[in-house]
């Protein structure tokens, strides 16, 4: 881990961000399965459990695609309007995978689509993002400020899309960033170089846990 004081992760002001770890993107054979996500879930679980045990914040970002396609990215809107029913509100496919869910909690789609965070634990929330980035038209900035955080540990689904965008958004906001490399699907070698070039710390799950504990 770097000794640079401007980008060194700050344990006491850290939180875990999971991105799009939902059934429709994760489960084998699901409608929009992202290869490698299911295999990364056990390491995501280790991180979530460790942050919960440390009483550090956990925020799960999710996508919710309305059946009429009205809130879907333009590149997917035509598919949605033709019946591409993925991560639709109030469907099993939109839910967080069972391994990450707080028992007894399901997504409150109406609340989330209205831009409000859903509290699912003492230090745990779910938030809806309408596009790739976790900060775009969400209240994540306000949440980070309210909780007085400066360090984000990122894991989740499909690095080239939502995680990458979210990481660059976090960097623009001067957050210190850790990527849990084996708890992220789609991470490739050139991306590691590019992330390191903007001060992102890339650690495997065990190294993250050692740092956290």
Describe this structure in words.
The longest helix is centred in the first third of the chain and has 17 residues, at 37-53. The chain has a seven-stranded mixed sheet. By secondary structure, it is an alpha/beta fold. Helices cover 33% and strands 18% of the residues. α2 (37-53) runs parallel beside α8 (205-212).
Set down the secondary structure blueprint:
Blueprint: E1 14-19, H1 23-26, H2 37-53, E2 58-62, H3 74-81, H4 109-113, E3 118-121, E4 124-128, H5 140-147, E5 151-156, H6 162-172, E6 176-184, H7 189-197, E7 201-203, H8 205-212
Broad shape: globular
Helix/strand-derived category reads alpha/beta
Average of per-residue pLDDT values:
96
Which radius of gyration do the C-alpha atoms yield?
Answer: 16 Å
Count of DSSP E strands?
A: 7
Percentage of residues in helical conformation: 25-40%
Q: What order do the strands of the largest sheet run in, or round the barrel if closed?
A: 3-4-2-1-5-6-7
Can you summarize the main beta sheet? 7 strands, mixed
Gist of the model:
The chain is α/β, with parallel strands linked by helices. It is built from 8 helices and 7 strands.
Descriptors for this entry?
213 residues; alpha/beta; seven-stranded mixed beta sheet; 7 strands; globular
